[in-house]
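The data are set out underneath:

___
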Amino acid sequence: MIEVEIQMKQRQLRLLGLIIIGALFLCIQTNWSSEAFGKPENSSPTPRLIVILVDMSASADQARRTVCKDAFEKVYRDLRHGDRLVVGTITSQSYVEFKPTVDEEIPKKTVWDNRLQYEKKLTDSKEKIRREVNKLLSQKQGTLLTEILDSLNIADIIFHDEKERQKVLVILSDMIQDSKDYKFDKDKITDEYINNIIRSRQKNKLVPNLANVKVYVAGASAADSEKFRAIQAFWGHYFAESGADFSPHRYGHSLINFENGSQLNPAPK
């Protein structure tokens, strides 16, 4: 009888030991996973689908290697687990020839991941993103035309099936539409001009659906402040028509902050 009681107590102690070890393992895993991005677990924000469109026109050549590169660095530093990053180009054949330069998901952290394996996956993913985007932004030969409007239809396609992540669109461009139909640097941009473009694209079902998409613009430029504000006004109306979450405070030559009370610097004088 005494031996039976001893055996039962031994089994209970072994079971208790296993429970304690399991609890410690979960605590350790939770702790490292919450620190992987330097943020506590209980404050982990919702993952995002971030689409970056890079203007490859000759007029944006200098900006690609300066303000656009700086803007990308801000986005890059803000990447977190579960984010998907898609980077593509704005060219004269944006809609027809679009092919992502980057389509990468930042690995998600779970309590079951081996820490070293997770950190390797994370490092490999981010290094690939940096390598490919730096190569893109370093290109010096630009396209003659800039089809920004059609590029937004590509963004619509990418965002269309996303149901869980927050949607963010970053446009690294001077925002000067230069196509066979519209030349913002030469055309006089009035309310009538803006309305005519919007009506034409509505008629042809070309206005993208960017509902719930938060928009940032960096690299915006123009010959003078009057033209800058006229182009900005066009995009404000066009983004409103598309249903996007757009604010003039997220439109400018340089991206000051990203996803954290973001503001862009004012129009050039």
Notes: Residues 23-42, 261-269 have pLDDT under 50 and may be disordered. The longest strand covers residues 48-55. Residues 1-35 form one domain. Residues 30 and 111 are 6 Å apart (CA to CA).
